[in-house]
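Why do we care about 3D structure at all? Because function follows from shape, and shape follows, mostly, from sequence. That is the central idea of this module. The next example makes it concrete: a single protein chain, its amino acid sequence, and then its structure expressed as tokens.
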Amino acid sequence: MLSDIEAGYLSRIARGQTAEDIAAEEGISVQVVQDALSAAETKLGALNLMDAVTKAARLGLLKDDSSLP
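And the structure:
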């Protein structure tokens, strides 16, 4: 359903990171992170980012720290 990157980014958002934090750590643009998060929202039928995180958690799609991208 979600790509590994989408699930990883949602997991990091759930742990309190921002798109800016993720982008800086990954050495990519914020827009790339936001695009992946937006795709995840669409795939999950979420109303917003927090709804996407909640739905992903309920579906068991969030990753633990050891498997984050």
